[in-house]
Amino acid sequence: MLSRNDKPNREYARRIIENAVEALAGVHGLSYNRIAVRNQKTRLGSCSSKKNLNFNWQIVKFPEEHMKYVIKHELAHLVHQNHSKHFWDYVMMLDPDFKIHRRWIKENYRKFIK
C-alpha cells in the first residue's frame, strides 16, 4: 500500500498516472496541456478550462479499471467542461462500464484516499 508521505511512492504513482493518461488520450485522439499529480483530500481529479489535468496521486491505490475511469472522466472534460447529458454520453463512449466504476468509487474511495 502506498503511504501518503512516501515521496518515492508518489513519484511512482505520478509515472503510472501520466502513462495511463498519455495512452488513453492517444487512443481517443484527445489532447491536453499538462498533467499535475498531487495529494488532495477530497478530489480525485479535475480538468481546467486550459486543458490542464489534475489527479490525486492516491487513485493508483484503486483497482486499475477504476483508476482508468477517473482518468477517462477527466479526459471527457476536455470535450465537455460540465456534467451535462452530452458529457455523460461522451463518458459512456469512453467507458461503457462507467456506472459500475462510479458506484464502486462512491462506495469505496474513502478506504483509499487518506
Could you give the distance between the termini?
A: 12 Å
Give me the CATH fold name. Answer: Zincin-like
Rg over C-alpha atoms, rounded to the nearest angstrom:
13 Å
Strand order within the widest beta sheet: 1-3-2
What does the main sheet amount to? 3 strands, mixed
Gross geometry: globular
For the secondary structure, the number of strands is 3
| CATH-derived architecture | 2-Layer Sandwich
Order of SSEs: HEEEHHH
Given the structure, what is the number of helices? 4
CATH superfamily, called what? Metalloproteases ("zincins"), catalytic domain
Level-1 CATH class name: Alpha Beta
**Mean pLDDT value:** 93
Class by alpha and beta content: mainly alpha
β-strand percent reads: 5-15%
* Count of the domains: 1
Low-confidence stretches: none
Protein name: YgjP-like metallopeptidase domain-containing protein
Pfam families: YgjP-like
Domain YgjP-like metallopeptidase: 9-107
InterPro entries: UTP_pyrophosphatase-like (IPR053136), YgjP-like_metallopeptidase (IPR002725)
